[in-house]
Design goal:
Elements lengths: L2 H17 L19 E4 L2 E6 L9 E7 L10 E7 L1 E2 L39 E6 L6 E7 L6 E8 L6 E6 L6 E7 L5 E9 L5 E9 L2 E3 L7 E3 L3 E6 L11 E9 L3 E8 L3 E5 L9 E6 L5 E7 L6 E9 L2 E3 L6 E4 L4 E7 L7 E7 L7 E8 L6 E6 L7 E7 L4 E7 L4 E7 L5 E3 L1 E7 L3 E5 L5 E4 L2 E10 L3 E10 L2 E8 L6 E4 L12
Parallel strand pairs: 5-15
Antiparallel strand pairs: 1-38, 2-7, 3-6, 3-8, 4-7, 8-9, 10-16, 11-15, 11-17, 12-13, 12-14, 12-16, 17-18, 19-25, 20-24, 20-26, 21-22, 21-23, 21-25, 26-27, 28-35, 29-33, 29-36, 30-32, 30-35, 31-34, 36-37
Length: about 500
């Protein structure tokens, strides 16, 4: 057997470990013929991490776990969310000086911990509530029928104090690169970067800050060790000698992988979680700006050596429009650029669309969105996100507190929106919508019949162009209102696996 054949079989074996048995379609020895399209199979294992929710004694946190029904998964599987072990330096500053935080031989996984929730069958959400500020980061794994599209929402209500309001984040898959435009080390802000390591060995992470004048020089963010199965909060102000109103944070993992999210707490404007922007790209979509937003701030960054010029447009209910006075934005390479867009939506649903004016240069971006007036203002963030390729899910919805925002920036698209059964009962319901080219449509998600408890909303692209989405969740507690926005990237529940014309098992005989 030649080296090429061995390599192909090795690649298929690796795919099979994730997606189930996979077989390869190879061309004839003569080179004639073409490869057959890969099969789409459900993933067999998913890992998610949820950051520590809050240190406030009056915080109430809800976790909602949901897996959409997926054909081809079989009838077995399990899912669990286990508490991460706190590191020795979990004092709000993290190991910002780069020192090791190993606590036990081998990192020590908490083998006695119990899952904070026990999933029901796919198609039915499960909720768990936590009161007070003793919550820790969670590390989740789902296998078999629970893995494809598994989504966990973490939502925290804080009535008063810094970061008051509603703080929401979708628990994320671990990775090795993250970009967070929109962070801050200003005096009124306390921004914590939460790093969570789900694996059996320590991860080593570098953190670099970029301000409006360029790189923030500091060695404090180099070589931060996150022990196995643990979480590390890093107060961003410890990584800079002076305050910066607007920053872009780059997280780069030298070894291992982590989950990452920024908890942004403001003394007067409330707070929320800032999720990572989509990977650097020439064109970006930031969906779901609330129609009653009182102030919208764009924070963008290009990691390239050259500058970038972007066309700024708003996808409104009637089509793409150019905000007056903000037709384009110029980004200087290596520096953070800020554009105050004000009340850009003007009481209509909207999504920001950024495209290159000429040459394409990779860019990351996020929006800081304010609602309310005076001391009633609250904050949320919208990072640039990827399209719903096949399917995306948003758990933790209620009939009067959720708004789904969908945009089709380049071509008309048809989508199917399914509201699941409730966590306490009910029957799922689906409805199809047409999103016209260049528009954003705010949708009150369909409500399951006889719903009890919280429910999940799943968006599936049926036909047409790419669709981008976000969900806005609102809540009121003790006279204060809050809101949070989560974007809806594809859930990556399906993976392409090459087909086989030949049964490879015969090669083992």
């Amino acid at each position: 057997m030649n080296r090429t054949t061995l390599s192909l079989i090795a690649g298929v074996t690796a795919l099979a470990a994730v997606t189930g048995f996979a077989a390869l379609k190879t061309p004839e020895a003569t080179g004639a013929g073409t490869a057959t399209a890969a099969a789409q199979l459900p993933v067999e294992r998913t890992t998610l991490v949820c950051p520590a929710p809050s240190t406030s004694d009056i915080a109430d946190t809800a976790y909602t776990s949901f897996t959409p029904v997926t054909t081809g998964t079989g009838g077995t599987g399990k899912a669990q969310l286990l508490p991460a072990e706190p590191s020795d330096t979990a004092d709000g500053k993290g190991s910002a000086k780069g020192g090791s935080t190993d606590r036990t031989k081998g990192g020590g996984k908490n083998k006695t911990a119990k899952s904070v929730l026990d999933p029901k069958e796919p198609g039915t959400p499960v909720a768990h509530d936590l009161s007070g500020g003793d919550g820790t980061a969670l590390i989740g794994t789902a296998e078999g029928k629970f893995a494809p599209g598994w989504t966990v929402q973490q939502t925290t209500e804080v009535a008063v104090g810094a970061g008051r309001g509603l703080l929401g984040v979708t628990c994320t898959a671990p990775d090795t690169q993250f970009w967070f435009p929109g962070a801050s080390t200003a005096a009124a802000r306390s921004d914590y970067l939460h790093l969570t390591n789900p694996d059996d060995s320590a991860a080593v992470v570098d953190i670099q800050l970029y301000g409006t004048e360029g790189v923030v020089k500091s060695s404090a963010g180099e070589g931060i060790t996150v022990p196995a199965h643990s979480s590390e909060p890093v107060l961003l102000s410890t990584l800079a000698d002076s305050s910066q109103q607007d920053l872009t944070v780059h997280v780069s993992v030298r070894s291992g992988r982590v989950g990452a999210a920024v908890q942004a707490l403001d003394n007067s404007l409330g707070g929320d979680w800032l999720a990572a922007s989509a990977d650097p790209a020439g064109s970006l979509v930031l969906p779901g700006i609330p129609k009653d937003a009182t102030d919208v701030r764009l924070v963008a960054f290009t990691p390239a050596d050259s500058d970038a010029d972007l066309k700024v447009r708003l996808a409104s209910p009637s089509g793409l429009i150019t905000p007056a006075g903000h037709e384009t934005v110029h980004l200087k390479g290596g520096t953070t650029t800020v554009v105050d867009l004000g009340e850009v939506t003007r009481e209509e649903a909207g999504s920001l669309v950024l495209t290159p004016t000429s040459r394409s240069v990779p860019v990351v971006a996020a929006l800081r969105v304010l609602r309310g007036k005076g001391d009633r203002q609250e904050t949320a963030f919208i990072p640039a996100t990827g399209p719903v390729v096949t399917r995306a899910t948003s758990p933790d919805n209620s009939a009067k507190a959720s708004t789904l925002s969908l945009t089709a920036p380049t071509a008309t698209a048809e989508v199917k929106v399914t509201a699941s059964a409730g966590s306490g009962g009910g029957t799922a319901v689906s409805k199809t919508y047409t999103i016209k080219e260049g528009t954003t449509q705010d949708i009150a998600p369909p409500v399951p019949s006889g719903v009890k408890g919280t429910y999940a909303v799943t968006v599936e692209r049926v036909s047409g162009g790419p669709v981008y989405g976000a969900r806005t969740l609102t809540a009121s507690k003790e006279g204060s209102s809050g809101f949070t926005i989560q974007t809806l990237p594809d859930d990556r529940g399906m993976v392409a696996v090459p087909r086989a014309e030949q049964d490879l098992s015969v090669l083992q005989k």
